[in-house]
């Protein structure tokens, strides 16, 4: 959605500034999120300690991404969380006629997510933006030509902003 698993993880809290909505409220939510995330193992089980680590990683990635949006220095505490998480073992990959299979526990998944976050946070050419929809606080990577993308994801925010603008025009012309 955002273009990066780490930023997708950070985006599992919406409307952070005034009315936060947490999509990963329980370890089961986290298991579903991992299964749905491309490039991560399909089946992991999350105990409460691993769940806490995932939430800590999420908040650290969000903070560092926001630091990039605002063009300020990285928050040292968040750097430590992301770097420590990335230092763990990563998922194993296995090739067969069926294709590529990834396996690993949640710690390995988090290490992989942290690494993907580091790769993009370190990229001086990556264009970090906060969604232009009022109150949506998601951070995404703008990979469009000329970096003209305005919303975190068309399905969620772009279409709603466009529909609201359309309704406003309709009302104005009535
Ligand atoms: Zn948005």
3D architecture notes:
By secondary structure, the chain is mostly helical. It has six helices and six strands. The strands form three sheets. The chain has a two-stranded antiparallel ribbon. Strands 3-4 form a two-stranded antiparallel ribbon. It has a two-stranded antiparallel sheet with strand order 5-6. A hairpin with a 2-residue loop joins strand 3 and strand 4 (99-103). The longest helix is centred in the middle third of the chain and has 23 residues, at 48-70. The radius of gyration is 18 Å and the shape is globular. 29% of the residues are buried. The mean pLDDT is 91. The structure holds zinc ion. The site of zinc ion has 8 residues, from helix 6.
Question: Mean pLDDT score, rounded?
Answer: 91
Taken in chain order, the helices and strands follow as HEEHHHEEHEEH
Shape assignment: globular
Sheet with the most strands, sense and barrel status? 2 strands, antiparallel
**Count of DSSP E strands?**
6
**Uncertain spans:** none
Helix-strand category = mainly alpha
How large is the share of residues in beta strands?
5-15%
Total helix count?
A: 6
Relative helix content: 40-55%
Radius of gyration, taken over Cα atoms and rounded to an integer in Å: 18 Å
What is the CA–CA distance across the termini? 37 Å
Small molecules held by this entry: zinc ion
Strands of the widest sheet, in order across it, are 1-2
Record keyword descriptors for this entry.
174 residues; mainly alpha; two-stranded antiparallel ribbon; 49% helix; globular; binds zinc ion
């Amino acid at each position: 959605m955002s273009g990066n698993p780490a930023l997708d993880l950070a985006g599992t809290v919406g409307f952070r500034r005034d009315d936060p909505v947490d999509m990963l409220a329980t370890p089961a939510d986290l298991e579903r999120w991992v299964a749905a995330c491309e490039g991560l193992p399909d089946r992991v089980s999350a105990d409460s300690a691993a769940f806490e680590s995932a939430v800590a990683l999420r908040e650290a990635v969000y903070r560092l991404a926001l630091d990039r949006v605002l063009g300020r220095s990285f928050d040292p505490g968040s750097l430590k969380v992301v770097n420590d998480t990335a230092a763990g073992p990563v998922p194993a990959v296995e090739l067969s006629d069926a294709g590529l299979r990834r396996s690993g526990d949640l710690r390995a998944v988090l290490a992989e997510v942290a690494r993907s976050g580091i790769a993009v946070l370190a990229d001086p050419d990556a264009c970090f933006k906060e969604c232009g929809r009022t109150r949506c606080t998601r951070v995404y990577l703008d990979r469009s030509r000329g970096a003209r993308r305005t919303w975190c994801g068309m399905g969620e925010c772009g279409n709603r902003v466009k529909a609201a603008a359309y309704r406003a025009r309709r009302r104005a012309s009535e």
